[in-house]
Amino acid sequence: MTWESPTGWEAVIGIEVHVELRTRSKMFCGCRVGFGGEPNRDVCPTCLALPGALPVPNRQAIEWISLIGLALDCEISERSVFHRKNYFYADLPKNYQISQFDIPVCHDGHLDIEVDGEVVRIGIERAHQEEDTGKSLHIGVGGRIHAATETMLDFNRAGVPLVEIVSRPDIRTPAQAKAYAQGLREVVGELGVSDARLEEGSIRFDANVSVRPVGTERLGTKVEVKNMNSFRSLESAVAHEIVRQVDLIEAGGEVIQETRHWDEEAGITHGMRKKEGSSDYRYFTEPDLTPMVIDAEWRAEIATRLPELPAHRRTRYVASGVDGQLASVLADAEPTVRVVFDDAVAAGADPRTAAHWVTGEVIAWMRRESSDGVSITGAHLAELLAMVGAGTVSASAAKEVLDGVMRGEGAPHEVAVARDLLKMNDDTALEAVVHEVIAANPDAVQRYRDGEAKVVGFLVGQVMRATQGKADPKSVNTMLDQKLG
Prior knowledge:
Layout: E1 9-20, H1 59-71, E2 75-76, E3 79-80, E4 83-86, E5 96-99, E6 106-115, E7 118-131, E8 135-140, E9 148-154, E10 161-167, H2 174-191, E11 203-213, E12 223-228, H3 231-250, E13 258-263, E14 268-274, E15 284-285, E16 292-293, H4 296-303, H5 310-319, H6 324-331, H7 335-346, H8 351-368, H9 378-390, H10 395-406, H11 412-418, H12 427-440, H13 442-449, H14 455-466, H15 473-484
Parallel strand pairs: 12-13
Antiparallel strand pairs: 1-10, 1-11, 2-6, 3-16, 4-5, 4-15, 6-7, 7-10, 8-9, 11-12, 13-14
Helix pairs in contact: 2-3, 5-6, 6-8, 7-8, 7-9, 9-10, 10-11, 12-14, 12-15, 13-14, 14-15
């Protein structure tokens, strides 16, 4: 989207990201974690807060939040404590949420994003572990609470492991907010700790937005914006909220600290409720859980599971000579696609050429054939590119060879022979075809001799068609130039 900041004003934005972990069981009980099941099927006395039920922490969830923290260059707390966050809402069975307050698992990290060619570092204040709430389904016009005639409650989600990642207020534009959210989702997806599906709510974004006059240090009153279910929604909501606050202040009004709801259809935010502060939640240490100790040995073991992250891959690809835009496409591609590229380069292929083929022809073939996997190895791609470079097959014939390899017909040279796609190396045979094309197109020949040089492209095309793409276009051009004088 095209957006310009209101003249004389600067936005200060922080993003809170909630990530549902895809563990097999919930955070404090053994109930299944899933999406779309029959309402209130995956529940038990613990996640329904029935009397006498006690929580037991999910070790996998603690390891995965530590992995997220390490990927974001966070410090991992050796000792971390769970707290009770007290508030009352229908989809919160306990009337409190087991969360963390002053000693989170992860703190003081960062994520680098790139917007309009500029790298911006966004600080990560904390990433803490908590449990998700249930889900409210409002029955009525538009499915919104203010128009609902009744509300249905589904507690399948209650107790699902949830990681809240809180940025520092380092974001200044809607585009940066969008890039940060996308970058964070990339990291989480690469780690494999969450499905990170916006449409299912397994990753959710809340934006804290305030404005201040350019050049001032004092922060304005922040407003929390909720209900952004896509990156485009996040960008649009932040942009709207910045303009709304500036217009309000310039008209003599005052921004109040509140939570607002993004109305995607209307493109505006609506006030929901007064924004709570930490004192309103009356945090206190969870009495049913002992402090967690994540010692150096455990941290080191978790760190061994860190994969290469998208930003690191992009840097590596660019360093090898791949164009920045192609490097970004390749870095974000499916792992099997990236393996083909890496293996092709390892087998001797030029990185730039391999990147063009992988992000172009290989991915296009997969989409065209609705293929879920890549059926060409990096070694075969390197062989195919070497054949093109040596003039064994033409660039157009190489695409047919690729099709054969992807369909399992064999190695590139085998496919080229079987499909009769090897280039013509017989100058006598090529000369005969050129003579035939010249004789069959006297009008085009005369136009060329009259000075219309671009007509030669048509004649080259006729020769290539007659040879079924086997002729070398450069040789055809040279021969036509000689014959046409």
